[in-house]
Design goal:
The protein has 49 helices and 29 strands. By secondary structure, it is α/β, with parallel strands linked by helices. Strands 15-16-14-17-22-11-23 form a seven-stranded parallel sheet.
């Protein structure tokens, strides 16, 4: 095999020895090949060889680790073929299997397993599944909050008022978990919490970090506005009318801004605030001279923007005076103390719960590893760290830009001494801020390490030769980032050593300029329509490439473009990917979307999970209906209706048994499968049972013939893998379906399977495309707005590694809340950090293309914005760059520049048109219209069937949803604790435990010995162990010894957890409750806790765990829901409902509901 030719910097990175080395490897520079070759030269060095098991090679994914192992194995094989007599190479080949080529977490896990005794941990801890840990977190937090509610400490209750949502306290839990996860990314998080989750009313505002950030932002804003207005002065001087009428006004504006700018430099906060609040722009004069209309209008727009920037300072920066700030801090002090204590207590309880279950989470791996390797007080390496570090000759870290502060401390401890570190990455590709990656780790070394001189260490080497991309693209990328990536705007400068240099010999006789599509639909076009039209335009471009002889290069020759050569990249797939998939399919182009829905929401997995639930309990009508109507058995709606009508008072399964005995073949097939699988339940692990289920029902093959059938099969295989992981946790097989249900209820998503390999256009996100490359790339949605800091569910709080924690404050008398100055400052800082990451994401996106790059921006004003931003003053460039709202804001300043190989196409997008409808040549003239026939046709087509609402498929809605929709009304801002304003019927695990106990328990046994019966339910898998511990035995005893409890025990029959799926007409719903005005038929589903049959009448009982103070609260919430239940019970059982009761566990009494 021919020797690979390395560039000078690559050769340096491969051969340098003697100290720490940072390799700054630009996109496409061959960093993985360099890393592999460095390992090979280390282990095959003829003078000082290093055994492979003395290298620690760390990557950021298991797939990358395996790829690295295979690359090293391949290079070893090549060298062994070249030097078959070399025994040292054969030795290294034998060591490869035990070599530490792993992820950071795998290394930490091994370290803990080998040294658990030093931490005082048990030796059998296992890594928990992400979903399992999320459920455990939620359970621990729920229990903690319930205890705090019971204690009703005033500081805690005020904290809940501060953090809760307008109608319930769900946001409290989400905010606490968000803060906890943020905390755990800090090496010494408890100390960080003590320092940063606290108020400070003593330090003067101008001496705080908040004051500095707010003043700096105000100064930058004024500088930008001033530069823009000064840029208007020459135009005003060049026209007599503007000179007389407008020039004095502009000079007055500039003087005002200069005065404000001077105040910011030296005046105290209150003085600056007063000056900003009083400042305003005078009215713009009326000027009607047509000779200067263009310049007048341009100046008017610029002046309006300057006025808007000044107004923004009043609402985003100078929110209050210093005395108000101090008052806020004094009010926040006890609340932040309570918050800190709460989150740290949660940390302790969650840690104890994990140990009790023998579990670790990913955060534990890093923290325990750090505890083993560093002294808690000094941070110095421990004896263990020095011993382990001395074993390694070198530590090699890939993707170093994505490490966090914890990981940096771990590897610093290991490498202190003689062990050198070889770190490689590209800080411009650090795009995992949501995982708390710290690009500062990389930047601090890049800024302090000198370029390698062949002798001194530590040092840095820059790899800029690009072995992926044509020069048209590299030239565009270099020009763009040289103009926008600076120390101020991105935390780094785009230096000459960072510039991409195309190093592959492409055929440049065929030009491939970067194509920019600036698509401007008519004003007023919605965001959804913009996306749809952009998708249609991109699909047409791709169709033209495929059908009109587009080519790409492969091994020095041109070949036709294939769909698999093309990738459509987007920042986020949500609300966008489906438009491109649909548009490409309309053009007849195969497409593969990398947007992966939740595994539990895919039809094939829902079918199997429902089957598992039915195997445990055949009386689950909804789950059974889903299985029967799935491709597994193919029942139609009519089949299901006949089955339902066969016995309206019976369960579907009971009707199945009856119909099968009557000779119905389809039912017999299901029952044969069902009985076989049920017999195998106790014999097989759940993962094997899933395989047996799919094999027995031929579901594997049935899925393969569906659209995207291979993905469906892959999803089922992935479900088996999750089941196997679940089993390794040592839990009962019968709980798996319920475990998945609880995961779904907590919005803990399991990602569906990824399928690759087909020749299809790839539609994916930038994050998923990192590390990949494609001959042709379309970066779409360039005009989409960035997400702003301070938006979303947790917008009332903010966190920053350096600044700490901040939140809004509420006046509990007026119930009005306001933004505090620390929150305002932190949101500005977070926004700056977010924009820096967006810039790096753009860099990753642009460098995925090999030969052809398209950029698409769509919006009514994109073309106007192009000219507007191209003309902005150079003095204001940094402010515009760091306050950009979209990629288009950055691209506009470059795409109109000279000297780039670029094609700019400003168009109005055509409406979407399927390929089958596209004209393919001269079209015949339309025949003359018969107006009389046209009138008759319009009359017939305009007919509206008066009962059309009754012909549509009935909507499916739960009883609780329907009742909630009817009763929903505007609420004043009132944030109350969960125990006073719980909205949902099963809002806590405590409530779930009570309901499940009453559903599955033997009631006489429960009354006789409640503790023993609960233990039975736990042992047989009806309750989780933690659920059993949550059951309030006293409350259960109160119910069973009450008059209602005695009726439960004495009833002729008790239906527990009776489920419904029934259709109602609008008239029937109105008879139930006059407020239910719903057009068309409605399919109602629901479940009632218990139905007692007493003679020829039925009694409904619904258990409620709401914390209430009076029965009327329950009646207000649930009367409509129970009226609907009564109607459904009467239908299902054919018995009149004589009584409806709500049983309140909180009050310990039954509350009658009037029908």
């Amino acid at each position: 095999m021919s020797e690979r030719k390395w560039t000078g910097p690559q050769r340096q990175a491969i051969t340098a020895r003697g100290g720490d080395l940072l390799v700054s490897a630009a996109a496409g520079s061959g960093k993985t090949a360099v890393l592999t070759e460095r390992v090979l030269t280390l282990i095959s060095d003829r003078t000082a060889p290093v055994d492979l098991d003395r290298l620690l090679i760390v990557t950021f994914s298991n797939a990358a680790a395996e790829e690295m192992r295979q690359r090293i194995a391949g290079r070893l094989s090549e060298r062994m073929e070249e030097e078959p007599e070399n025994a040292a190479l054969r030795r290294q080949s034998l060591l490869l299997g035990s070599a530490e080529i792993c992820t950071i977490h795998a290394f930490c896990h091994r370290l803990i397993r080998e040294n658990f005794h030093l931490l005082g941990l048990p030796g059998d801890l296992t890594l928990g599944q992400e979903g399992e840990m999320a459920l455990l977190q939620a359970s621990v937090l729920e229990q903690l909050l319930d205890e705090k509610y019971e204690a009703a400490d005033p500081s805690f209750m005020r904290l809940i008022e501060l953090l809760s949502g307008s109608r319930n306290d769900k946001k409290v839990a989400s905010s606490l978990l968000l803060l906890y996860r943020f905390l755990r990314n800090h090496p010494c998080y408890r100390g960080w919490a003590a320092r940063h989750i606290a108020a400070d009313s003593q330090t003067a505002l101008d001496k705080t970090a908040w004051g500095s950030i707010l003043r700096r932002y105000a100064a930058d804003t004024l500088d930008c506005a001033l530069a823009a207005l000064k840029g208007c002065l020459p135009a005003a001087e060049g026209c007599d009318t503007l000179r007389d009428r407008l020039l004095p006004l502009l000079q007055q504006d500039c003087a005002m801004l200069e005065r404000l700018r001077e105040e910011l430099e030296s005046a105290p906060w209150d003085r600056c605030a007063e000056q900003i609040w009083q400042a305003d722009f005078p009215s713009f004069p009326r000027i009607s001279d047509p000779a200067c209309a263009t310049e007048k209008n341009r100046i008017l727009v610029i002046r309006r923007k300057a006025a808007a920037q000044l107004a923004q300072l009043k609402t985003r920066v100078f929110l209050m005076k210093e005395a108000d700030y101090r008052r806020d801090q004094e009010q926040l002090a006890p609340l932040l103390d309570a918050l800190r204590e709460l989150v740290l207590e949660f940390d302790s309880r969650y840690a104890a719960a994990k140990l009790e279950r023998g579990r670790l989470d990913f955060s534990d791996l890093e923290h325990y590893a750090l505890a083993l390797l560093t002294e808690p007080e000094t941070g110095r390496p421990t004896t263990l760290a020095r011993r382990i570090g001395s074993h390694y000759a070198e530590i090699l870290l890939d993707e170093y830009q994505d490490t966090n502060a914890l990981q940096e401390m771990i590897f610093s401890a290991l490498s202190e001494g003689s062990t050198s570190r070889f770190t490689v990455g590209d800080v411009k590709q650090s795009i995992y801020g949501f995982r708390e990656a710290c690009p500062e780790n990389f930047l601090s070394k890049k800024d302090t390490y000198p370029l390698y001189d062949g002798e001194h260490f530590p040092a840095r080497i820059a790899l800029s030769a690009n072995f992926r991309t044509r020069r048209e693209i590299t030239g565009f990328v270099n020009r763009l980032f040289a103009s926008i990536m600076t120390r101020r705007t991105a935390g780094m400068d785009y230096l000459p050593e960072d510039e991409l240099v195309s190093a592959l010999p492409f055929d440049y006789s065929v030009p491939r300029p970067v194509t920019v599509l600036a698509l401007a639909p008519p004003a007023g076009t919605s965001a959804a329509e913009c996306r749809r039209s952009e998708a249609a335009q991109v699909a047409r471009e791709i169709a033209a490439l495929l059908r009109e002889g587009g080519t790409v290069e492969q091994e020095g020759a041109h070949r036709p473009v294939r769909p698999g050569d093309i990738c459509i990249l987007m920042r986020s797939a949500k609300n966008r990917a489906e438009y491109y998939v649909d548009a490409l399919r309309e053009q007849g182009i195969p497409v593969r979307s990398a947007q992966r829905e939740s595994l539990l929401e895919t039809r094939e997995v829902k079918t199997v999970v429902s089957y598992l639930a039915v195997l445990s309990n055949p009386m689950l009508d909804l789950e059974l209906a889903e299985v029967l109507c799935s491709p597994m058995y193919g029942f139609t709606g009519d089949d299901l209706a006949r089955l339902r009508l066969a016995g309206r008072r019976e369960r579907l399964y009971q009707n199945l048994l009856t119909e099968a005995q009557g000779g119905a073949a389809g039912y017999a097939v299901f029952l044969e499968d069902y009985n076989f699988l049920r017999s195998r339940m106790q014999e097989l692990p759940i993962s094997e049972l899933i395989g047996e289920l799919c094999e027995k029902t031929d579901f594997w093959e049935k899925c393969r013939v569906l659209p995207e059938g291979e993905r469906a099969v892959a999803n089922l295989r992935l479900l088996q893998a999750h089941a196997a992981d679940y089993e390794r946790g040592g839990r009962a097989d019968s709980d798996f379906a319920d475990y998945l249900r609880r995961l779904s209820g907590r919005q803990c998503e399991l990602e569906s399977a990824a399928v690759s390999g087909s020749d299809a256009v790839t539609v994916t996100t930038v994050h998923r495309a990192k590390g990949l490359e494609f001959p042709i790339v379309f970066l779409v949605g360039c005009n989409d707005r960035f997400r702003r800091a301070g938006q979303g569910e947790n917008s009332d709080i903010a966190m920053d590694r350096e600044l700490g924690f901040a939140c809004k404050l509420r006046d509990n008398n007026t119930m009005l809340q306001h933004k505090t100055l620390p929150l305002a400052a932190m949101q500005l800082q977070n926004q700056k950090t977010m924009v820096m990451e967006e810039m790096r994401i753009l860099y990753v996106a642009l460098t995925r293309a090999r030969e052809k790059l398209y950029l698409a921006a769509t919006g009514p004003h994109v073309q106007h914005r192009l000219q507007e931003l191209a003309d902005r003053p150079r003095e204001a460039e940094p402010f515009f760059t760091e306050n950009a709202g979209s990629y288009w804001d950055w691209l506009c300043g470059v795409v109109t520049q000279q000297g780039l190989e670029l094609e700019l196409r400003c168009e109005q997008p055509a409406p979407p048109q399927p390929a089958s409808e596209q004209p393919s040549g001269p079209q015949p003239a339309a025949p003359a219209c018969d107006e009389e026939a046209l009138a008759r046709l319009r009359n017939k087509l305009g007919f509206c069937y008066p009962y059309d609402a009754d012909t549509v498929t009935p909507r499916r809605i739960s009883v609780s949803e329907l009742a909630e929709h009817r009763s929903r009304e505007p609420y004043l801002l009132q944030r109350r604790p969960k125990c006073l304003s719980r909205q949902e019927s099963t809002a806590t695990e405590r409530g779930n435990a009570a309901h499940r106990t009453m559903q599955f328990a033997d009631l006489p046994a429960l009354r006789a010995d409640a503790a023993a019966e609960i233990e039975r339910l736990v042992g047989e898998g009806y309750l989780y162990r933690e659920e059993g511990s949550l059951v309030d035995l006293e409350a259960i005893g109160t119910l069973l010894n009450s008059p209602l409890g005695k009726r439960l025990l004495a009833a002729d029959c008790v239906y527990r957890e009776m489920r419904f799926l029934q259709e109602f007409t609008p008239e029937e719903l109105q008879r139930i409750d006059g407020s239910l005005v719903i057009p068309g038929r409605t399919l109602l589903m629901g479940a009632v806790d218990a139905v007692l049959v007493e003679g020829e009448r039925a009694v409904i009982v619904d258990y409620k765990t709401d914390r209430i103070s009076a029965p009327q609260e329950l009646l207000e919430r649930y009367t409509l829901q129970l009226r609907l239940y009564a109607a459904m019970v009467e239908r299902q059982l054919g018995l009149p409902v004589s009584e409806v009761l709500l049983y309140s566990f909180c009050l310990g009494q039954a509350v009658p509901v009037r029908l």
